[in-house]
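User: Okay, second chain of the day. Same drill as before: sequence in, structure tokens out.
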Amino acid sequence: MMKKIAIFLAAGLAALSTVNFNNGANAKATTPINNAANVSQIQDTMVLGKLYFVNLKEGEQPVMTALSLFGNRCGSENFNHKPHATEGIRSVFELDEWIEFHPKSNAKSGITVMVFIHKEDQGFYLKNSLNDKTPGYIQELALNKDPDEDETSDWGSFYLHPDETTPGYYDFVFIYKNKVFATMLTHFFKQEEIYEKSDAELEKLMSQRR
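Assistant: Same drill. Structure tokens below.
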């Protein structure tokens, strides 16, 4: 009986051991989930503005070690220009607000962020091929450092069109070399809903757990 249980558990873990990412092309990759505990962590305690790193071997550093996001509508300069971090990253926006990405990374290109309607099962991003046909897909952005710009320049920007998306929770899914390496929960509000809120009020919105 114990032998059968062990075989069943091994088969279950094997089913979760690969992930493919296809960026609108034919390229595919299979990647082992090296830290299954990370899947449970991001599934159980989703916090706004926190990078949940996955697919890392013990002691391995992610390609993007920290992130700062700038917005162009809400909050003061201090709120909009937070330093690079793995937690407390700006994560509340309005749907028509431009978002600039400022990653901290040794890789100057090759990182992609895909935007999905929030999924309670964050393991979905590790178990499935991700492309523009994936359920919940909104859009994606390639992050690239312009060699002609200074260190303060952004690596790319986008906004969620209010006529094509609705207010609510969204996942930013970060991919490098066809492998998901982090997810981050964000909250988008309708136009002008949080425009006049103070930094303290915006920070309070960011402190809410999903």
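The helical segments are 2-15, 36-44, 77-80, 124-127, 199-206.

User: Thanks, on to the next one.
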